[in-house]
């Protein structure tokens, strides 16, 4: 793909006679900060002043605090904003500007479920920018996709689960009581093929409760209400079994029910298949295979670095360097750069970048991602010079 294709047509960047020229001006920042300072979600006396983990769900264009006892549970029909604030002695950045003093560093994720609405996704993106403004523009911004979980996001939630339904979905989960009818649920536990090894690489997704959702390489948990079955595919991994045990333990803390663990090779495992509508299916003779609900995007063998610049009077987007020798010295603080590493596209905003460059980076990266072969599985992260964090430095050096 030509780096200029669809991205440098003059008419798309003819911003001089429009109000886009005000973006990132002092007036623009004041207006945005004023808006952010009136958002109840941010103004709780803790956000921006103390370290911690905060989660909000988008509901009817509003930012609604997510209950702490549900942290780590995300519905595929929703969009969320997650803020992780850490107190650090010295921020790991490409160029230190704080003299090594203690300070808060922030990561903001707007998490988009695979079935979220455009309105919810747009609100999450807009409010993420607003939250960054509330934090004085120092946060690292991440677009996190359900289909492509990053190691950084997964590490925030030791008990990360993706559930069916959502706030505006017909499958919306509701609080149940003793008189409520039980709905069978099926959870799939599997290893992300592109994630680093370890606990955070094991994912938990609720899937349609049918035998067609089974896969012999993974572990499944069928919750019948009065009993829980654990179905272990014949080639599942030990880490998946351990993760399933953790999930079942969490489930039985709230209700005391019988749990039965069955291997696919065990003839009795047919009881699970029967419950899932496969009464005419033989577990011993059938090859269970179901696509995993994640992207197949992988890290690139050769990275690509693009420059977004208006140094010649017109905004242009061009390939600056390609290969695995891209380093800190290839960045220029007067421009905006896009680093394509494969699973993640990084946007680096130089402290001296122009208003036009700062105004257009989001549009450019969205167009670039849309042109990739696996656009649905490409996340992007935006960092600013002096507040890059370790992950960006690692992406440059890896």
UniProtKB/TrEMBL annotation:
One of its GO terms (cellular component) is cytoplasm. It holds the Pfam family Gelsolin. One of its GO terms (biological process) is actin polymerization or depolymerization. InterPro entries: ADF-H/Gelsolin-like_dom_sf, Gelsolin-like_dom, Gelsolin-like_dom_sf, Villin/Gelsolin. SUPFAM superfamilies: Actin depolymerizing proteins (SSF55753), C-terminal, gelsolin-like domain of Sec23/24 (SSF82754). It comes from the Eukaryota. GO terms for molecular function: actin filament binding. Residues 70-153, 201-252, 330-392 form the Gelsolin-like domain. SMART domains: GEL. This is Putative actin-binding protein Fragmin. It comes from Bimuria novae-zelandiae CBS 107.79. The lineage of its organism: Eukaryota, Fungi, Dikarya, Ascomycota, Pezizomycotina.
